[in-house]
Amino acid sequence: MPNSFTPQAAGDLNYLKSLNRSTILSTVRRNPGLSRADIALQTGLTKATVGGVVQILLEQGWLREGELHARGGGRPGRALHLDDAHHCMLGAEVGVKGLRLVACNLLGEILASLHREEPPTTPEATARRLAELLGELRDDPAIAGRSCLGLGVAVPGPVSPQAPILRLAPNLGWVDIDFLALLRAECRGPEGIWLLENEANAAAFGEFYFFDGAPPESIAYISAGSGIGCGVVSGDHFPVIPRGRQGLVGEIGHTVLQPGGALCHCGNRGCAETLVSGWALREALKIDSRASLSASVSARGDEAEVQAALARAGDALGLLLLNLHHTLNPSMLIVGGSLMRLGARLIGPALSYFDAHQNDLLRQAQAVPVKVVEDSTFTAARGAAAQVMARAAVAL
Amino acid sequence: MPNSFTPQAAGDLNYLKSLNRSTILSTVRRNPGLSRADIALQTGLTKATVGGVVQILLEQGWLREGELHARGGGRPGRALHLDDAHHCMLGAEVGVKGLRLVACNLLGEILASLHREEPPTTPEATARRLAELLGELRDDPAIAGRSCLGLGVAVPGPVSPQAPILRLAPNLGWVDIDFLALLRAECRGPEGIWLLENEANAAAFGEFYFFDGAPPESIAYISAGSGIGCGVVSGDHFPVIPRGRQGLVGEIGHTVLQPGGALCHCGNRGCAETLVSGWALREALKIDSRASLSASVSARGDEAEVQAALARAGDALGLLLLNLHHTLNPSMLIVGGSLMRLGARLIGPALSYFDAHQNDLLRQAQAVPVKVVEDSTFTAARGAAAQVMARAAVAL
DNA sequence: TCTGGTTAGTAAATTGTATGAACTAATGGG
DNA sequence: CCCATTAGTTCATACAATTTACTAACCAGA
Question: Is strand D in 7 Å reach of the CB of B13?
Fold first, then answer.
C-alpha cells in the first residue's frame, strides 16, 4: 500500500537531511512550544544538528520563535511554534451536493472558505466551476501575501493508489476521471503540490494531522453521508494512509451486515449502506432526493416512524463501528459526515450499541474513544490541504 | 500502530548506512539473482555504494555470489543471492493443540522441524517443554555450524504492541503472560533477537516475506482454526504489520455477521466464529473437543448433515473474506489454518461465495487472488522466524 | 552586586557516508 | 585483434551529523 509520506527505501545525505528536517517539523507540530534542546532530546539528534535545521526552518517560514520557557535554573529555552503567518495550503472537496474550498495556515486553521450548494454535473463543467471558485478564494485578503504550498482535492470515490485518478464516483456517475488534469486546463492554479484524494481519506488525514490535543497513534474516520466510507491514518512523524491495491480500503459501506438483506446499489444484498446512509434513510422515510434530508427529518419532528428509522440506522452504525474496531483496532474512532446533522437521534443509538456490545476482548482492554464531528462541512477539504502540507514538509 | 521495521524518524550516518544495507538486502530477497549494477538501478544508489555494501554483506554471510549473467554485450554481471548456508533463524508456535518448532535459512526453507501434539497446560510448564524442544532442535545436524539470528515465538492471542507480552489467549486460559521471560528462565536459548508475535500476524508475515513469486504489495492472511484470526502485511522493503492500539487488529472472528445470532464465547452474538471456526463446527456436528475435527469429519464421510454444516461454514467464510476485502483491500488474500484440512467441502463454498458476491466496485477492478494454504502446520512458526530475519536485517 | 551552578544554544574540528569521475575487468561483434 | 559495451572498483570530494568546546542567559545564594 504505497504512500507518499514514508521515508524512502534508500538514500543519500540529502535524504538524511530532509528526513531530519521533516522530523523536527513534525515534532514541533505535535508538541508546540518545544525548545531546540527539547527537540534534540525527543528526536535523539544533537543540539547542534537541531540548531542548524531550526535555523533553516525559521528562515523558510515554517517555524517561528515564541516566548521564553520559565522553568527555574539555567538559561531558559526559546519556544518554537509552527509559523502560521507565511504559508498556506488550499483544499477543495467535490461533494455530491456541492463544492467546498478552504485555505488554511500551517496550524490547520481555516483562513478563508467557500461553500456552494451546486451538485456537480460533468467532470469538465465541475472543473471549470472549481477553477472559478479557486480564483475567488485566492483573492481573499485573508491569504494575501502568503506563499501557497499547493492544492488538494477530495473526491467522493476511490482514487487509484498508482496515479491521481478518480476511479469511480457512483453518486456522480463519473468513471476514471483525471480531475487534476481537467482542473489544470481551466486555471493556472496555485504552484506547488497538487493532489487528489478520496473524501474519507482526506478527512481522516486532516483530523489526524491537525488533531487538537495529545495525538492518537492511529485513527479511523467514518464518513457517514450519502454513502458510508472510512479512512485510516497512523504513524508518528509520517502519517500513513493505507489505500489498498485498488484504493478500496475503507469501503465499509459495502461490508455485509445482513446476509440476504435488502438490495444495495452496489449489486449485493444487506450492505451496511442499505441500513445506514443518506439514501437508505431517504428510502425508508420516502424523502425526495432533491430535498434536504436533515431539514425534512427535523420538519417531521417526533413522528414514530422517523424515530424508529433513525434508531434502526443508529444501531447499524454502532455495529459498523464495532466491526471496524475488531478489524482495525484504531486508537480512536471519529465519526463525521452529513448524517451527523441528524443529531442525537441517530448517533445516540449508535454509541449506545457500540458500548453495549463490546465483547470480552475489548472490555478487557482500555475503552477506545469515539469522537463525533457534528459539522464536517470543510473536514474533507481541510484534510486535503493537510496532505499538501505533509507532502511539502517532506519535500521541502 | 508502531512496528519495528519502519525506518526511524530521525537519523545519523549510521542509520543511513544501515538503511541502505537492509534495502539492498531486501532488494536481493525480492529479486534473487540481481547483479550489483541492477541493484544500483533499482535502488537509485550509485554503483560504488552498492559495491561497498555488497562486499560487507558477502563477508557477513548474508549474500553469496552466483552465476554470471548472460545478456549479450558488455561484461556480464555477477548474480547475487541470499546466502542460504551461513545463518539460520528459529521459530516456534505455541498452538492450542501443541508445539511446533522450525529452523530456517535466509530463504525461508525449513532445515529442521519438530511437532508435538501436546496441548499446553500452564505457561511455566509450556515454557519448560518448549525449552527442551529448542535444545533438541538446536542439536539437529541440519543447522550445525550456522550462526543463529534469534528466536521468534508465535502465540494464539493478541500481543501488546508496546511490549512482548501475550495479553490474552482465550483458548489456553492465559492472561498477560511474559512468555519470553519464562522461556529465558528455562534455557540459555539462542543468542540474538527474541520476539513474541500473534500467530496470525506471524503466519501473515512469513507468507509475505518469503512469498514465492512476484511479491504482492500487501496481503491479508486469514487463519481459520479453533478461532478465526487475521494478519495484514504490507510494504516493499520494510514490511509492516498493523497491530492497532491494543494488538487487536485482525480479530475478525468477532466481527458480527449475524446480528442477534448465536451466542459467542466472547460475550456477543452472531460473531463470525459462531458460524465458521473449529469450535462452531464441533458444536454443529457434536464432535468431542478431544477428538480430531478433520479425522471425525472424514470418518463421517458424506453424511448430509456434515455436507450441510461444511457448506454453511464455507459460505460464512466467504462472506468474511468479502468483508475483509472491502475493509482492507489487500493485493492478495491467503487462507490457512487447521480448518483447511477439511478440504474442498469447506473452502470450495467459501471461494464460490466470494466470487459470486463481488459487488460492482470489485468487479470493476481487477480480481484479487485468493491463495489457500492446505498444510499450515509450520506456517506460523516459520513466520516468527521470518520476523527474526527482518529485524536482524535492519539491525545488522 | 558578584559568583558559581545550570541549562540553552552556537562554533569549529572530526568522522563517516554517499557521490562522481576515472579507472580496470570482462564479454561479444566485426 | 580491436572496439564498443557493460560490470565493478578505486580514490578524491562533498556534505551531514557528531563531538568538543565554547558563549549566552538565567537563578540562587553569599
Answer: yes
**Nearest residue: Cα versus C1' of D11:** B48
Q: Compute the nearest-CA separation of A257 from chain B (Å).
A: 6
The CATH superfamily of B212-372 is: ATPase, nucleotide binding domain (3.30.420.40)
Residues of chain B found within 8 Å of residue A7, distances taken between Cβ atoms: 6-7
Which phi and psi (to 5°) does residue B92 adopt? -140, 150
Mutate to test the interface with A, among B15, B322, B326, B394 (most CBs of A within 10 A): B326
Sort out which chain A residues have CB atoms less than 8 A from B218's CB and list them. Answer: 1, 242, 244-245
Write the DSSP assignment of B161-190 as a string of letters.
Answer: SSSS-EEEETTTTEEEE-HHHHHHHH----
Q: Each residue's pLDDT tens digit in chain B (396 positions)?
A: 223 334 457 788 999 999 999 999 999 999 999 999 999 999 999 999 999 999 999 999 999 999 998 877 889 999 999 999 999 999 999 999 999 999 999 999 999 999 999 999 999 999 999 999 999 999 999 999 999 999 999 999 999 999 999 999 988 999 999 999 999 999 887 889 999 999 999 999 999 999 999 999 999 999 999 999 999 999 989 999 999 999 999 999 999 998 889 999 888 899 999 999 999 999 999 998 888 899 999 888 888 889 999 999 999 999 999 999 999 999 999 999 999 999 999 999 999 999 999 887 777 778 899 999 999 999 999 999 999 999 999 887
In this complex, the residue with its CA at the shortest distance from the C1' of nucleotide D26 is A75
- Hey, are the CB atoms on B244 and A328 less than 8 Å from each other? yes
- The CATH architecture assigned to B13-82 reads Orthogonal Bundle (1.10)
Q: How far is CA B390 from CA A79, B106, B180, B208, in A?
A: 40, 10, 19, 12
Residue nearest to nucleotide D5 (CA to C1'): B74
Distance set, CA A228 to CA A171, A253, A321, B270, B362 (Å): 12, 5, 11, 22, 16
**Residue of chain A with shortest Cα separation from B394:** A9
CATH number of A87-205+379-395: 3.30.420.40
* Interaxial angle between packed helices B304-328 and B344-356, expressed in degrees from 0 to 180 and rounded to the nearest 10: 40
